[in-house]
UniProtKB/TrEMBL annotation, chain A:
<dbReference type="InterPro" id="IPR036318">
    <property type="entry name" value="FAD-bd_PCMH-like_sf"/>
</dbReference>
<dbReference type="GO" id="GO:0071949">
    <property type="term" value="F:FAD binding"/>
</dbReference>
<dbReference type="InterPro" id="IPR006094">
    <property type="entry name" value="Oxid_FAD_bind_N"/>
</dbReference>
<dbReference type="InterPro" id="IPR007173">
    <property type="entry name" value="ALO_C"/>
</dbReference>
<dbReference type="InterPro" id="IPR016171">
    <property type="entry name" value="Vanillyl_alc_oxidase_C-sub2"/>
</dbReference>
<dbReference type="InterPro" id="IPR010031">
    <property type="entry name" value="FAD_lactone_oxidase-like"/>
</dbReference>
<dbReference type="InterPro" id="IPR016169">
    <property type="entry name" value="FAD-bd_PCMH_sub2"/>
</dbReference>
<dbReference type="Pfam" id="PF04030">
    <property type="entry name" value="ALO"/>
</dbReference>
<dbReference type="Pfam" id="PF01565">
    <property type="entry name" value="FAD_binding_4"/>
</dbReference>
UniProtKB/TrEMBL annotation, chain B:
<keyword id="KW-0560">Oxidoreductase</keyword>
<dbReference type="InterPro" id="IPR036291">
    <property type="entry name" value="NAD(P)-bd_dom_sf"/>
</dbReference>
<dbReference type="InterPro" id="IPR002347">
    <property type="entry name" value="SDR_fam"/>
</dbReference>
<dbReference type="GO" id="GO:0016020">
    <property type="term" value="C:membrane"/>
</dbReference>
<dbReference type="GO" id="GO:0016491">
    <property type="term" value="F:oxidoreductase activity"/>
</dbReference>
<comment type="similarity">
    <text>Belongs to the short-chain dehydrogenases/reductases (SDR) family.</text>
</comment>
<protein>
    <submittedName>
        <fullName>SDR family oxidoreductase</fullName>
    </submittedName>
</protein>
<dbReference type="Pfam" id="PF00106">
    <property type="entry name" value="adh_short"/>
</dbReference>
């Protein structure tokens, strides 16, 4: 197997790595690598941070291990290799009446990455996290050992693998229980929301399967926390189109997303939805993957990259979340991308992010001021009894994260059993000292 | 009419992409490959994508005994029989210089092996008075260069063979498309130095499918390689021999 020396980065492009990458295309090649030169896996590099990096070491690019290994049209169970992209599963199976139970805000992530971060989507309050719909996973561990884990078999290994940031082995394949859909469309209802309290009220009482709120992170005073609530449900009647996606051809200069531009954009975006609200019907992908129409949108933030801060806080800590939104509004650092959502309790693994409560995700261009602000927001999250997301956090310390994830020691023990020599350790695991 | 495609070298990066393209068009696929386990793994992937049927068969360009069973298998299929040849190997010129025995193997993998297979399947295609052969050659076959002239010579031989085969199959109502990809992002080129304007296997596969539909004779993919190779072919030999491109 050939190794190629490459520079690569997470989606936020703040952390970078220089190292050797292999990109196997055949199961036999992947097995040989795990036997002779085991290394951590990476996929489409949509994690924002250093969770996929192994600076100075080796990593396995799994994007060509992307086959569908079986599909049962009666039950909706599909077995896939880890490199299959979630958007591809949606494209192939929605016309047959099935779709992945959980998808994030982009269709590019792989099944392997979705498992490694136990991702959530707009339907988390209804269906829980990605790992809760994985019925079994087959791992290749360092030395070439092949192990299958499921909620009923090798239980601890399964719980250490869902959200387990790749430390229990490279995923060879996974079985997913998809959900049935009446068609390939979504009916989306948009509602203008005046302030933070109204937002939480609407999120708490939403009866739709999918919901998410866009929040104007620049609005202050009586407008604090205003935004647009999008509620959606699956429906029939629209054909998915394979529209072209527009590339962002260059790294934009730093002022492109400066405070005045963002304020103007946000105000106009908020007014775009009429005060009485509106309803559209659109292809599923257009609603669930809104940013995929703009390829490489991370270049909007310029060469220095950006951070995405995402926290979840318990329901009763809503006042702290309001303070967090206020603190962001006064900083003048917010970008147009800010999202709020009500989460249910669903989580599949020891290091899974979700908890019953509210989650907030906001992008900041990577500047010193933003880093200081994010550290403040981390402290407020701790005060709220909440947690940070390992698919996004790029700045926290090990102590902060360990306090938020009470099961981390059980997880570390499982990781040590699967990978005693620590060959799967990544930059993030090193930064947070998660493997001790 | 039902369409059957024999994909030779089915587990290669370009072949996979082309097989998926044909699967979405509803074709019957015969995946012929040395790594039969991997070819078998491809079967459910292709049926999930719309293939009428897919099956895996062992094929080794260096072992003619693997040819007959594949020809027999497609003879039993109704309708149009098509063949896409994606087999090939590209050891570095340095490896070949160290072991001249490789010259014979490179020729076998890129030219004489697939040519022998095609010779056997030709009567079936002629009898049905239809079908297309896609032969994946290379821009490297357009002119011998210091970096890979053994591989280039084998591909040049294959291109010339395909040209003759087109002459033959056209008379029977069939067609041959010669495909000359430029640098493509495959497992064969992963980590190879000095590549530029690299195309994805999916782009190459789409170009091939379009060329088959339009009955093109020779295509460069991506198309701009036609310009590059026209210029390279125009450089006089007395200058070319001093270049290292």
């Amino acid at each position: 197997m050939q190794w190629k020396t490459a520079d690569y980065a997470g989606w936020g492009r703040v952390h970078k790595a220089h190292g050797e990458l292999a990109r196997p295309e055949r199961a036999a090649d992947l097995a040989r690598i795990m036997e002779d030169t085991p290394a951590p896996a990476l996929g489409m590099r949509r994690s924002y941070n250093d969770s996929l990096l192994n600076d100075g070491g080796r990593a396995i690019d799994m994007t060509r291990m992307d086959k569908i290994l079986s599909f049962d049209a009666a039950t909706g169970v599909v077995e896939v290799e880890a490199g299959v992209q979630l958007g591809e599963l949606l494209r192939l199976f929605a016309p047959k009446g099935w779709l992945p139970a959980v998808v994030p805000g982009t269709g590019f992530p792989t099944v392997g990455g979705a498992i490694a971060h136990d991702i959530h989507g707009k339907n988390h309050h209804a269906l829980g996290s990605f790992g809760q719909h994985v019925t079994s996973v087959t791992l290749l561990q360092p030395g070439g050992k092949r192990v299958t884990a499921s909620p009923g078999r090798n239980k601890a290994l399964f719980r250490a693998t869902m959200g387990g940031i790749g430390q229990t082995g490279v995923i060879l394949s996974a079985k997913l229980q998809m959900i049935s859909t009446p068609g390939t469309g979504m009916r989306v209802k948009e509602t203008r929301v005046g302030d933070f309290d109204e937002f939480l009220d609407l999120l708490d009482n939403s009866r739709f399967d999918y919901n998410v709120g866009w929040i104007d992170g620049t609005a202050k005073g009586s407008n604090l926390g205003r935004g647009i609530l999008e509620e959606a449900e699956l429906t029939t009647g629209v054909e998915a189109r394979k529209g072209p996606s527009l590339p962002v051809p260059i790294d934009l200069p730093g002022f492109a997303l400066s405070a005045p531009t963002v304020r103007l954009f946000n105000a106009a975006y908020w007014r775009k939805v009429p005060a009485r609200g509106r309803t559209h019907v659109m292809p599923i992908a257009s609603h669930v993957f809104p940013l995929d129409k703009l390829h490489d949108w991370n270049r909007l933030y310029g060469k220095r990259g950006f951070h995405q801060f995402q926290c979840v806080v318990p329901v009763d800590a809503a006042p702290v979340l309001k303070d967090i939104v206020g603190r962001i509004a006064h900083s003048g650092l917010c970008s147009p991308l800010a999202v709020i959502k009500r989460m249910g309790p669903g989580r599949a693994g020891m290091l899974s992010f979700p908890m019953e409560g509210y989650t907030l995700a906001i992008d900041f261009p990577a500047r010193d001021k933003a880093v200081r602000l994010i550290h403040e927001l981390e402290a407020m999250t701790i005060e709220a009894g909440g947690r940070l997301y390992l698919g996004k956090d790029a700045l926290a310390t090990g102590d902060t994260i360990k306090a938020m994830y009470p099961e981390w020691q059980d997880w570390a023990a499982e990781a040590a059993r699967a990978d005693p020599d620590g060959v799967l350790i990544t930059d993030m695991v090193r930064r947070l000292e998660l493997r001790g | 009419m039902t369409q059957t495609w024999i994909i030779l070298g089915a587990t290669s990066s370009m072949a996979r992409a082309y097989a998926r393209e044909m699967a979405e068009a509803g074709a019957t696929l015969v995946l012929a490959a040395r790594d039969i386990d991997e070819a078998r793994r491809m079967v459910p992937d292709l049926t999930a994508r719309g293939a009428a049927e897919a099956s895996a068969m062992r094929f080794d360009a260096r072992d003619p005994s693997t040819f007959g069973p594949i020809v027999d298998r497609v003879e039993a299929e109704p309708g149009e029989i098509n063949v896409a040849v994606f087999v090939g190997s590209m050891p570095s010129q340095a490896e070949i210089d160290a072991d001249p025995g490789l010259i014979e193997r490179v020729t076998l993998d890129n030219f004489t092996g697939p040519a022998q297979f095609l010779a056997r399947v030709m009567p079936v295609m002629e009898a049905r008075a239809s079908g297309t052969v896609v032969g994946v050659s290379s821009v490297a076959g357009d002119r011998g260069r210091i970096g890979n002239y053994v591989y280039g010579a084998a591909k040049a031989g294959f291109s010339t063979y395909l040209s003759g085969l087109r002459n033959r199959l056209t008379r029977a109502g069939g067609h041959v498309v010669t495909v000359k990809p430029g640098f493509t992002d495959t497992s064969m080129t992963w980590g190879v130095e000095g590549m530029f304007l690299v195309a994805s296997p999916e782009k190459v596969a789409r170009d091939i499918a379009r060329a088959v539909k339009k009955r093109r004779n020779v295509i460069y993919t991506p198309g701009f390689w036609w310009v590059i190779m026209t210029i390279i072919k125009l450089v006089p030999e007395r200058i070319f021999k001093k270049l290292s491109i």
